[in-house]
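Is this the right way to post structure tokens for a design question? Let me know if I should format differently. Anyway, here goes:
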């Protein structure tokens, strides 16, 4: 559970840091805390963790309102890095951006991040 991921994160394990971020993001096993989740995703992304790069990009592209300022250039760079490592959704999102089919505004319609509108 969360206690094992906390220990892995304390040891500097990128996967443990990312998974702990997911728990805080979803509120499973720990209190939901979007800011703490983003900080953990950012830490794991700095360690080249592909899924964490995707989550940080998601926040920078408009899903992190109240947590981080929107920064499309940095978000796109992280999507590219994750896509280069094979992250399917990052590649899909980059294609949507290139096709002009993605907006960077916060979604209020319940559509999951990076879904084509």
């Amino acid at each position: 559970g969360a206690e094992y991921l906390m220990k892995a994160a304390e040891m500097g394990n990128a996967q443990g840091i990312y998974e702990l971020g997911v728990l805080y993001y979803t509120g499973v096993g720990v209190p939901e805390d979007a800011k703490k989740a983003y900080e953990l995703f950012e830490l794991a992304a700095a360690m080249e963790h592909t899924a964490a790069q995707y989550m940080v990009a998601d926040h920078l592209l408009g899903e992190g309102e109240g947590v981080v300022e929107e920064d499309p250039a940095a978000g796109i760079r992280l999507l590219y890095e994750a896509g280069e490592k094979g992250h399917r959704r990052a590649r899909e999102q980059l294609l949507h951006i290139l096709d002009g089919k993605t907006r960077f505004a916060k979604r209020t319609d319940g559509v999951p991040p990076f879904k084509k509108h």
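Format looks fine. Someone answered above. Worth noting: Residues 105-111, 113-117 have pLDDT under 50 and may be disordered. DSSP finds six helices and no strands in the chain.
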